[in-house]
Amino acid sequence: MRIRKFQPSDLPVLSKIDEECFPPGISYSREELAGYISFRSATTWVAEDNGSIVGFLVANREPGRVGHIITIDILERARRRGTGTRLMKVTEEWASKARLRIIYLETAEDNLAAQRFYEALGYRKLEKVERYYSNGQAAWVMVKSLK
Length: 147
Fold this sequence. Notes:
By secondary structure, the protein is of the alpha+beta class.
């Protein structure tokens, strides 16, 4: 398993992974994903296994020393093998080096597996946002304080 920085040629694969990981209304269009990745204050990491992309994470630095995990996508075959944990750790290291105070993310209200994963990494539910996703589904905002 190797974690590396995003390269523009990765975009088609990342877009397909996002479509596989999330249902319509939650997944991003290729244009939306490209927009998030191209934010000047954003960083994207890619997880590769045997030369194949199996996941990625997009994070953005926001005002007030705040980090935002825009999305983390892991193919089903690469889950529960440490891929997501490694991507989250790299992101938290980036946030700490940037002297961010907190990092947050949103996850679907019914995605209990993701909520348990984030809680195991020290994130806590902060607030529920009704109709967060374009399909009308609610989301939890989860946050972690950084040292």
